[in-house]
Amino acid sequence: xxxxxxxxQPPAESPASTDPRPxxxxxxxxxxxSLLLWVLLVGSLDAQELLAGAVVALLVxxxxxxxxxxxxxxxxxxxxxxxxxxxxxxxxxxxVIANFDVARRVLSPSLPIRPAVVEVRTELRSALxxxxxxxxxxxxxxxxxxxxxxxxxxxxxxxxxxGTDLAHATAAIAAGFERHIKGFLK
Length: 186
Fold this sequence. Notes:
Distance between the termini: 53 Å
Structural class: mainly alpha
Helix content: 40-55%
Strand order of the largest sheet: 1-3-2
Number of strands: 3
Strand content: 5-15%
Order of helices and strands: HHHHEHEEHH
Number of domains: 2
Shape: elongated
Largest sheet: 3 strands, antiparallel
Number of helices: 7
Oligomer: single chain
């Protein structure tokens, strides 16, 4: 006798359970950012305020620790802040240029619009790095990240040149962002 096979699949692991545990640098970073935010909100460097801020920052760090796995993609190096600033400048410049390009296409209907969905490959390995890249692409007018699957992003592009391949799409859409993101995220 043959037994019928069940189509029931075991439950997949939740993304939170697959994230690596945050290390001491990540916890210290969370504590420092929380304390800095406290000081900025209070607006005082009084000893009592700093002590209260340290207690609150410690509490925030302890409570948030199980959810900090996404931050394991951060690079802690002396050059990381420089790469972050370079990324922000690159993003701002791309944002301004893309806004003018889309506005020009809207105001001049004779300009070509060749929408297409293209694949873009990324070398970023962390969930945080891929998320930042996908959001950077989406926030730039003319492109919209539809899906992220492993090292590939599916992007809707408002003006895709004919014959565009994976390498060209990656260079045109993501390479400028990714080059700087790699300096502070894995």
